[in-house]
Amino acid sequence: MPAIVLIGAQWGDEGKGKATDLLGSRVDAVVKFNGGNNAGHTIVIEGEKYALHLLPSGILTPGCAPIIGNGVVIDLGVLFEEIDGLNARGVDTSELVVSANAHVIPSYNRTLDKVTERFLGNSKIGTTGRGIGPTYADKMSRIGIRVQDLFDEDVLRAKVSGALNLKNQVLVKIYNRKAVEVESVVAELSAYAERLRPMVTDTSLLLDEMLSAGKTVVLEAGQATLLDVDHGTYPFVTSSNATAGGACTGSGIPPTRITRVVAVVKAYTTRVGQGPFPTELLDEAGDRLREAGAEFGTTTGRPRRCGWFDAPVARYATRVNGVTDFVLTKLDVLTGLAEVPVCVAYDVDGVRHDELPMTQAEFARATPIYETLPGWSEDISGARTLDDLPRNARDYVLALEKMIKAPISVIGVGPGRDETIAVRDLI
Ligand code: GDP
Ligand code: IMO
Ligand code: MG
Questions:
Q1: Which of 77, 154, 221, 291 is at 20 to 30 A from 317, Cα to Cα?
Q2: Is residue 126 within 8 Å of residue 152, measured between CB atoms?
């Protein structure tokens, strides 16, 4: 009964979508367990590019059941837009299942996300503006609207009214916006109820049955370890648990079911939005990575901040997630560099730190201590085994593996499904 958790080891966009897709036909279900349409996964299959935000990456694999878990926040408009978009391209989405306990993102939370960012000015988080933070805040404040609330209009009206009692105070008195009418939100959400109803089920029960029947389930994270609300660079994080622990709370399967934790890590580092990033390159070296790696956000189109590989960050991901295997992506992007610096530790106020410093203030002041590895110039996109790699590329992988303290089992040498070196099986 393999239950494989797949997470991001850095600040997101490591290539989780491609990694999930790679597991492919051996997987019976892929569960998205956190986040919402703040995520953006680009998957390239036979030259065709797919950009997914809310749907689990397994949706592109025939025979794989895509499941939206209870830990996800759902923008219903985006859900159906994405389904319609895929259907128009011939992708079958009829197996999609949605948890009755997942929360929905009402339009007032998208408004609140944007006005809060404006209000914060220089202290803004740089959110995707999708209403993610306010919707998770409502969940914790116990004024959230859940998928199951849509199926009884009286219940829905009562919940919306309860939420707006509070939200309108904030919108009107703090942000100087117009109050939102209860009936307009009831109408907005009810409009989706009928189409949503057949997809909704008790996903925790369904997963328990699948695992007991020996099926293979992948639990796929949105965002990544350093964006996790508990373990990331708070407050510059998303509002959910993107680490392996979140896979259990966000899907309703227990930790004792998890058999493997796969972390996806880029051969360098990127970040979107504000917050500390010790290895960030603000010069031409950063521009080169951005161009060679096409580092522009799938969701907001923002240029991603780019920097060298940060070994303490990846090692931290190994520790907090219990990583059993790494998928190292975008090795091909480094081709052509004479030398590749790798951050092996930090200097904080003259003191060496081999691990992430305890406080955010120290991390913000951390400067990288680099080790420089020799580069390679040969095209590696055709490599399919470790031996196909030029020696310096192979040595780079082996050096990283030693630093991050878990085996690198898969290496990405291009965006395509087949542009991959499988060192060992993940299932
Ligand atoms: P995710 O959010 O973790 O799923 O990652 P994104 O899809 O946002 O960003 C990763 C990008 O890198 C996508 O455009 C992928 O097509 C691309 N990609 C994934 N693996 C590789 C690789 O090994 N090499 C190259 N050149 N691109 C890759
Ligand atoms: P995937 O799944 C990269 C970042 C935003 C912002 C912070 C909070 O594609 O790796 P939010 O809208 O979630 O409240 O924004 O988190 N962020 C991501 N950065 N990849 C993502 O997802 C992200 N999802 C959120 O840029 O800094
Ligand atoms: Mg992404």
A1: 291
A2: no
Radius of gyration of the chain from its Cα atoms, rounded to whole angstroms: 22
Read off the tokens for 91: 């992708």
Give the pLDDT score at 298. 82
Tens digit of each residue's pLDDT (9 = 90 or more) over 148-179: 999 999 999 999 999 999 999 999 999 999 99
Instruction: Evaluate whether 238 touches 35 at the Cβ level (below 8 Å).
Output: yes
8 Å CB contact between 242 and 8: yes
Tens of pLDDT, residue by residue over 331-390, are 999 999 999 999 999 999 999 999 999 999 999 999 999 999 999 999 999 999 999 999
Answer yes or no: is the C-beta of 18 below 6 A from any ligand 1 atom.
yes
Q: Does the annotation count 379 as an active-site position?
A: no
**Length reported for the chain:** 427
Indicate if ligand 1 lies below 6 Å from the C-beta of 333. yes
- Is pLDDT at 1 greater than 80 in this prediction? no
Distance CA 397, CA 389 (A): 10
CA-CA-CA-CA torsion for 341, 342, 348, 352, nearest 10 degrees? -110
**Ligand 1 site, residue 44, Cβ cutoff 6 A:** yes
Q: Is 41 a catalytic residue?
A: yes
Give the HSE-up count for residue 302: Cα atoms under 13 Å, Cβ half-sphere: 17
Q: In terms of Cα–Cα distance, which of 79, 1, 94 is closest to 36?
A: 79
Pocket of ligand 2 (CB under 6 A): 8, 12-13, 38-41, 125-128, 130, 132-133, 222-224, 227, 238-239, 272-273
Euclidean distance between CA atoms 113 and 42, whole angstroms: 25
pTM value? Answer: 0.97
Q: How many CB atoms lie within 10 A of CB 393?
A: 27
When pLDDT is cut at 50, 70 and 90, the band that residue 24 belongs to is: confident
Residue given tokens 């259990």 in the structure block: 248
Q: Which one-letter DSSP state was computed for residue 255? A: G
Centre of ligand 3 from the C-alpha of residue 39, in Å: 5
